[in-house]
Design a protein that fits this description.
Layout (H helix, E strand, L loop, with lengths): L9 H14 L5 H8 L6 H13 L3 E6 L2 E6 L3 H30 L5 H29 L7 H19 L4 H15 L7
Antiparallel strand pairs: 1-2
Length: 191
Amino acid sequence: MSRLEPELELHERERIVLETIRENPTLHHNALLHLIVPKFMAKTTFEKTRNSLIDKDMIYVEIKQNMKFYHPTENFEHVSHQHIERNTSNLFHDLKSQIRKLDTDFSHKDIDEKISLSKNLLYSLLLTDNGFTILDSAKNPKKTLYRDEHLTIQQLMFKIFEIIRNDKDSSLIFPPIMSSLGMRLPQLQNK
C-alpha cells in the first residue's frame, strides 16, 4: 500500500470509483485516473478496483478511438440476480454430485480430511440455501419459489450427518463440525 493511499475497505473503493464514473461519464481512463489517484487510492489499487467492478458486471468498458471509457451497467439489479441464480444453481448441482460420491469416499479418508470435507460441504450447502433465499426474497417475498431446492439442501445435510453418524470416527468428527457450524449460525445476544 502506498503511503499516500488511505486505508479504505473494498466497498468504499468500489463506491468511489463507481460514483466518479457516474458523475463523469465522458471522461476517458487517464482523466478518471487523475481524479481518483492519489486523492483516494494508489494507481494499482484503482486498477484492481476497476477490474473488480468489471468482473462483477457493475461497469463495462467502451473503447473509442484507442481510449477506454467506463459506464455503469444498465439494470444492475437484474444482472446481479442473474449472477446469483447462475452461481447458486451451479454450486447446488456440484454439491449434489459431491455428496453422492461421499458414501464411498468418506470412510477412506483420515479424520482431519473427514472433518474438513464435512465442514466445507455443510458450509457450502448453507451458502447455497442463502443464495436461494435471496432469490426468493428478490423475486417474490410472499412465496417460496425454490421450495424444492431448499428441501433438497435439507436432505443433503441430513445425508452428510448420517454418513458421519455411521462412520467409525464419528465421535471425533462431530464436535469440531458442530463447533464450526455454531460460529456461522445466529448467536443469542446477552444483554
